[in-house]
Amino acid sequence: MINSPQMTDYKNLQALWDQLVGEDLSGIVFVRDYLQLQFNPPPQLNVYSRRVVVSSAGRSATFGEEPFANLALSLIGKFVRKVEVDEQSFRIEFADDSEIAISLRPEHYQGPEAVDFQGRNNQWAVL
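^ thats the sequence. predicted structure below, dont judge the formating
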C-alpha cells in the first residue's frame, strides 16, 4: 500500500501501525539525513522528517540536538504500548511512557515523504 498525506485515512491503516505494538525497539540507525527505527525487522521505519522528538524519563530532545542520540538509544529494548498517527504526527508510545514523536507536517521534511513504514508480510505505507 502506498499512501500520501493528502489521501491517507490514517485510521484505516491502524492495523498496519499496530504491528509495532508489543515489539521492542531493537535498533536505531543514524544515516546522514534520516533515521531508521528497527523493531526486530520487520517492522521498521525510515524517518525523513527533520522534526523528531524523543521523550524519556522527564527529558526530551529533538533530532539534531546534542542529547538526541543518547536519549534515542536509551529506548532500545523498550516495548511499544501504542501507536497513534494523524495528519500532524506519527507517535510511538512505549510501555514506560517514553515516546518518539515524528512530525508529518510538510515543512518538516524536504523530500516526497516523512516516513516509510515497512511492515510484515510485504505491507508498507509511505507518509
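Strands lie at 27-31, 34-38, 44-47, 52-56, 59-62, 80-85, 89-94, 99-103, 115-118, 124-126.
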